[in-house]
Specification:
The chain is built from 6 helices and 12 strands. It is α+β, with helices and mostly antiparallel strands. The protein starts with a strand and ends with a helix.
Length: 299
């Protein structure tokens, strides 16, 4: 909890101070101080799970390094920002060492607001997690993001291998019921919440349509789309192109949908910095999508 006096104001300096205080409370294993920094209505978030915090604090010492802070919006009463920190975990007692590596680099989307002369965290959401080895270095390729609980990554990998992702870094892996998603973003933008482009692969155990044609037509009928065109349609796949605007910025997307023997895949390249995909890059992504689709015929 932070007390600002009679004229509570959130400044850039205060944002930096809040990030530093949060990390210091965590590495000091001070659960009460951590909890007090969050708004009373938001203290049920998973990050503040007391049992998990106490287990981690009992077993590990944690070193923290703040790598990046970026303020997205700010008024005197509230602010939205992102920050990225590096945590290195070492066992308090060597006997507890079991080979598990928890060290990671995580980026958070955070909101804070002033209420009754105090600034509270009202949102705290991770959006990128990179796993580290015992030397504190990012694990190579997809190993940096694929969690132990992933079930379907091996099914996704064979299609990912058809794409040239030089300059991209795997930075996100999401687990859902019966589906998973991996996200690749420009390596130079690894800490950003809003990136200029992204490549994602979504896996689903089942396709929510009777056919690829029906699925693709449904996608193109979305009200949000300003332009949509089916570029190629096969019995087991389709490639489509779409443009839409969000946050006053043009988004230009190419989507490959694949009905494979072992599941349904949606592979996307999205340019989202208010500029269309350049013609040469557009053709390159389309050719790679065709190559990925050709794998179905060989399975």
């Amino acid at each position: 909890m932070f007390f600002f006096g009679k004229k509570a104001r959130i400044t850039e300096q205060k944002v930096q101070e809040i990030v530093k205080a949060l990390e210091q409370a965590y590495t000091a294993k001070n659960i009460d101080k951590l909890t007090g920094m969050f708004h009373p209505d938001k203290r049920q978030i998973s990050f503040l799970n007391h049992f998990q915090l106490m287990m981690n604090f009992q077993i590990y010492n944690i070193q923290s390094e703040i790598l990046n802070v970026e303020i997205l919006t700010r008024t005197g009463e509230e602010a939205t920002f992102t920050y990225t920190r590096k945590h290195i975990y070492t066992c308090v007692n060597e006997a507890d060492e079991n080979g598990e590596i928890l060290s990671n680099i995580t980026s958070y989307y955070v909101q804070i607001a002033v209420e009754k002369k105090s600034a509270y965290i009202t949102r705290y959401s991770p959006y990128s997690v990179l796993h580290l080895n015992k030397d504190g270095e990012i694990l190579p390729g997809e190993q940096a993001v694929v969690p132990a609980g992933a079930q379907f990554f091996e099914r996704m990998r064979r299609f990912i291998n058809e794409f040239d992702l030089d300059g991209f870094q795997a930075a996100t892996y999401l687990l859902y019921n019966d589906s998973e998603m991996i996200g690749y973003y420009p390596r130079a933008e690894r800490y950003r919440y809003k990136t200029s482009e992204q490549f994602t692969v979504d896996y689903f155990e089942k396709m929510d349509a009777a056919s690829i044609k029906e699925h693709t037509e449904g996608y193109l009928e979305q009200d949000i789309l300003e332009l949509g065109e089916m570029l190629e349609l096969g019995a087991d796949y389709s490639i489509l192109e779409a443009q839409f605007t969000t946050d006053s910025c043009l988004r230009h997307e190419l989507v490959l949908s694949l009905a494979a023997p072992d599941g349904f895949f949606m592979i996307r390249y999205l340019k989202k910095d208010d500029r269309p995909i350049l013609p040469e890059a557009r053709q390159r992504w389309i050719e790679q999508m065709k190559s990925a689709a050709a794998r179905i015929a060989n399975e």
